[in-house]
Each structure stands twice: as C-alpha cells, then as structure tokens.
Design a protein that fits this description.
Blueprint lengths: L2 H7 L18 H29 L2 H7 L4 H8 L3 H13 L4 E3 L8 E3 L2 H8 L8 H12 L1 H10 L10 H17 L1 H6 L2 H7 L5 E5 L5 H9 L4 E6 L2 H10 L6 E5 L13 E7 L8 H11 E12 L11 H19 L13 H10 L4 E4 L8 E7 L1
Length: 380
C-alpha cells in the first residue's frame, strides 16, 4: 500500500490520545491515523486556495447570478476556458458546486447552492467566510519571511501581509459589528446607559476598517464616536465605509496617545479584537484609563480562548493559535521591546495588563452569541 493509499484509507480520522508519546514505538495504526489527519489538512488547504481563486476572480459571483457552463463562466468572468473547466470540476468534486447532468462535457451546468452562495458572496451574512480563504492565501505568500522571523527572533509587520489580510479582517468582522454589536451592548444595562448619554464621547481604539466604530455610531446616534488606528490604509477605508454618517470621525493615532490632551474626555472606550496585537498593551490601557471619565466604561473584546493552556484545544483555541503563529505574534514582534502577547491572550494575562495600567479588576460581560469573542469590562 502506498502512502497516499494508506492516508486515504484512514478516512481522515481525527488525532486521539492513543498516539505514541515520547520514547514510545509508533504502531502502524497510529501512523496511518496521523497520516490521514495530515492528508485531511492538505485537502483543506488546497480547497481553501481554490476558494480564494473563485473569490478573487469573481467566479462565485458569476455563479450566484445564474448556473453556468464552462464557456459561459469563461465569458462572464474573462478567465481562460480551460482553467474555467478545471476549476468548476474541482469545485463540484469538493462538494461546493452542484452539477446538472453527469459525465464530462462543455454542456454541463454548474450551480452554486444557496448556502454556499451566502457563505462565499454575501458580505452582510454572519456566515460570510470567503475572506478567510483570501487571508490564508496572503499569509502563504509570506512564509519565507515568517520562517526567517522564527530563526532571527524578529517579526513580520502587519503591512507586509498586504491588503488581502487587512481587508479580509475587516470583511470578516463587518457583519458582526453591523448586525450583532448593538444588541450585544444593549443587553448590558451599565454599558448601554453610558453609551446612551446625550453627546456621549466614545473612543474605538485600533478600529481597523471602522466597522465597529460605525456599528457604535448607528446604535447610538446621539453619541460622537472617534475611531483610531495606526494603519493609514485601514483609516482610509474606514472613511469610505462611513460616508454620510455624521457622528463618526477617524484618525491615525496610537492607543498610547489617547490621553495626550490631558483630560478625561470620553464616556466610553472600546478595544475590539486588537489588544493582543499591541506591543505595549499596558501603556495603551493606561492611556485609555486616563482618557475616560471616572463614571465611564472601558470594554475590551478579545478572543474567547480557554482560561488555561489545556491541550488538545477546541476549534476556537486551534484557530487562534493559527492566527498567532502566522499573523499576530510576528506582527507584534516586529516592534522592538514588544511584550509579544500573541492572539491567545488568556483572562489572567488581560487582568495582569489591566492591573498594571491602574484598573482594579476585570469582569466578563454576560454577552453571548458573538462568535468566538468575549467582552471584558475593566473596572477602575
């Protein structure tokens, strides 16, 4: 039996704790099982890249408009006909597309089912996932830089990953901030009351593409919401997204600079899924504490990772370690003297940062249903 035959025959079984530990002799079943696990991830990686091709070339959008033959897809999208055929057949083989008819031939019609269409093309859907494939492809291009960083101890800055990662992060977060954030914050009376104050000042630190800022501004139209980020292209995109919204401003500013004006001018401050990326989170939190009034609120939303390192982890834990290995930790380490938190910022780590910044406690807000995130209230 060849290696590929052995791998396929395992059916891609998940890894379990029967595999050999250090010093043990691996048995054939354990080897085949783990080989199957690796092959399963290989398939997933290849198919993820095929999704990136379909998304970046507008192939899914064309399929959503109407079922298509090979020739029609090539004509609609301007791609080569031979590549169109191979991509369509691969997508059908992977179970992404349906086919009207059997066999091969240019007359076969390929259809994008409604569920797949929503996940791959509907930017307003909570299920929209195509940007994950775009981010995966962009990170893959940086692997030589990443392996060099691992050897040298240096980093790979956010800007080096390019627009696909920046835009992908914004696009993935957008439906959650547009559709869920307002309800989530309204469910916490203490936070909602502060945000509902007349002319409330709200700071959104490290706002990225600005969708969290926009979500806050729409939910609380009497407030003035200021979004800040150090990434100029992200701020430019945020301005475009917020066109016509009058109670929003965006500026390039480091979180450490929020209190530079010397007065507590905000009723509330938020850091959405960004504190773990910051080279000096204590300085940022300290600046936020000084910039927010004593009767205001400070909320950090970050990944809902486990309280302690307890492998094997769940899907959230695995995903966040993946982000950390390939994006967040290298970005953080690109700044000299960074604390290098990484994506997996556990509750105890956030508490330590908060205490060092002058906060007295960190509590978890009772907000459910916000994907893989957790909301923390930082108490004075």
């Amino acid at each position: 039996m060849s290696l590929v035959d052995a791998v396929i025959s395992t059916g891609g079984c998940a890894v379990d704790d029967t595999m050999n530990g250090e010093g043990d002799t691996a048995d054939e079943q354990a080897v085949e099982q783990f080989a199957g696990w690796v092959f399963d991830r290989f398939l997933g990686g290849m198919e993820t890249l095929s999704i990136h091709i379909g998304s970046s070339l507008g192939l899914y959008a064309a399929l959503r408009a109407a079922p298509t033959t090979v020739a029609e897809l090539a004509a609609r999208t301007g791609i080569d006909r031979r590549y169109a055929r191979e991509w369509l057949e691969q997508q059908a083989t992977a179970g992404i597309l349906d086919v009207d008819g059997v066999g091969e031939g240019d007359e076969l019609r390929f259809r994008l089912p409604s569920a797949q269409a929503e996940v791959l093309t509907d930017r307003a859907s909570l299920g929209y996932s195509a940007p994950l494939a775009d981010m995966f492809a962009a990170v893959a291009l940086r692997l030589p830089d990443l392996t060099d960083a691992y050897r040298s101890g240096r980093g790979v800055p956010w800007a080096a990953f390019g627009a696909a990662v920046r835009d992908g992060q914004g696009d993935i977060n957008r439906p959650w901030f547009e559709n869920v954030l307002a309800k989530a914050l309204a469910s916490v009376p203490r936070v909602h009351e502060v945000l509902s104050r007349p002319d409330a000042g709200i700071a959104d630190v490290a706002c990225g593409h600005g969708w969290s800022t926009i979500g806050l501004a729409r939910a609380y139209p009497d407030a003035i919401v200021d979004g800040f980020d150090i990434d100029a292209p992200a701020i430019e995109a945020a301005h475009e997204h917020a066109a016509g919204l009058e109670n929003v401003t965006f500026s390039e500013l480091r979180g450490e600079q929020l209190a530079d004006e010397g007065e507590a001018r905000y009723d509330a401050a938020f850091v959405f899924e960004a504190l773990h990326d910051m080279p000096d989170p204590v300085a940022v939190l300290s600046s936020i504490r000084r910039a927010v009034r004593s009767d205001g609120v400070v909320v950090v939303m970050d990944e809902a990772v486990a309280e302690t390192f307890s492998p094997p982890g769940d899907d959230t834990e695995r995903a966040m370690y993946g982000y950390s290995l390939l994006i967040c930790l290298p970005d953080s380490m690109s700044t000299p003297d960074s604390v290098a938190t990484g994506t997996v910022m556990r509750h105890a780590t956030l508490e330590r940062y908060a205490h060092e910044a002058g906060f007295s406690a960190v509590s978890i807000l009772p907000i459910d249903g916000f994907a893989a995130f957790r909301f923390y209230l930082l108490e004075r």
